[in-house]
Amino acid sequence: MSQALQNLINLIHLEKIEEGIYRGQSEDLGFPQVFGGQVIGQSLYAAKQTVADDRMIHSFHSYFLRPGDSHKPIVYDVEILRDGKSFSARRVSAIQNGHPIFYMTASFQGHEESFEHQNTMPLVPFPEELDPQEDIMKKMANSLPTKLKKVFSTPPLEMKLVPLQNLPNRSSQVPVRYVWFRSNGKMPEDPFIHHCLLGYASDFNFLPTALQPHDVKFMGENMQIATIDHSMWYHRPFNMDDWLLYSIESPSASGARGFVRGHIYNRAGVLIASAVQEGVIRKL
């Protein structure tokens, strides 16, 4: 396991203050506010501490209420909504400076066998056919904050963006993005740590897809970019150690809001998760 991956796993783990109350540290990635994926991953970890071992996350729905301060810890307050025969529901409040910055409602379920179908993974080059991450980051260097450049010089997650110009009938101006990603090193066996890290990773590359048709940069000057809400569904077991494909599209942007949705597949084409997000995309 790389040191960067170990640091991220340590970040996801929370300190228990009392029953249902946890505290997590924050990571400064150079964004104006705390990275949303961090709050998602930590909220999932907090919720799971109150749920039976045989029940795993199958969905969450969340709202980002206020910008978080990346230099201060976050307190997570877990409310037990229901423990039924098949499902458990939890509500998590992430609190800084006495105010909620984020709410999540999460649902957990034990394993069941039933009907199965899924859509087909897009036909894109496999990660071995793409440029190394170091080469990709050099091309993107001018658009990244200094701290984020440092993070990606030794990243906890490897990411490879599929160049759209290499695909049939695609250009960089369409609101579509394909990204391969995996953990940078061997993960712990606990499947829930994989779930938390997938929640963390799902916030990368998401909202920027809504900007692609408009020739503006995600980190550009005079731009306000902020997540409003983020929902995710976990469909099938997966392993963060191996490459996963994030297939993202933005069907709509209007009213200073961008809407994006994504499907995550393993390299065998199995659909493991889906996500939806809306965020502010506004020129100042």
TrEMBL record:
Occurrences of domain Acyl-CoA thioesterase-like N-terminal HotDog (ranges): 34-109
MF (Gene Ontology): fatty acyl-CoA hydrolase activity
Family matches, as Gene3D superfamilies: Acyl-CoA thioesterase, double hotdog domain
GO CC annotation: cytosol
Enzyme Commission number, as recorded: 3.1.2.20
Highest taxon above the source species: Bacteria
UniProt domain Acyl-CoA thioesterase 2 C-terminal: residue ranges: 174-280
Any one biological process term the GO annotation gives: fatty acid catabolic process
Pfam families referenced in this protein's UniProt entry, alphabetically: 4HBT_3, Acyl_CoA_thio
Record key words, sorted: Hydrolase, Lipid metabolism
Swiss-Prot/TrEMBL catalytic activity: (3E,5Z)-tetradecadienoyl-CoA + H2O = (3E,5Z)-tetradecadienoate + CoA + H(+); (3S)-3-hydroxybutanoyl-CoA + H2O = (S)-3-hydroxybutanoate + CoA + H(+); hexadecanoyl-CoA + H2O = hexadecanoate + CoA + H(+); octanoyl-CoA + H2O = octanoate + CoA + H(+)
PANTHER family found in the cross-reference section: ACYL-COA THIOESTERASE (PTHR11066), ACYL-COENZYME A THIOESTERASE 8 (PTHR11066:SF34)
The protein's role, per its UniProt record: Thioesterase that has relatively broad substrate specificity, hydrolyzing primarily medium- and long-chain acyl-CoA substrates to free fatty acids and CoA. Functions in the thioesterase-dependent pathway of beta-oxidation of oleate and conjugated linoleate ((9Z,11E)-octadecadienoate or CLA), which provides all energy and carbon precursors required for the growth of E.coli.
Subunit and interaction comment: Homotetramer.
Protein family (similarity comment): Belongs to the C/M/P thioester hydrolase family.
Name by which UniProt lists this protein: Acyl-CoA thioesterase 2
Organism name: Xenorhabdus kozodoii
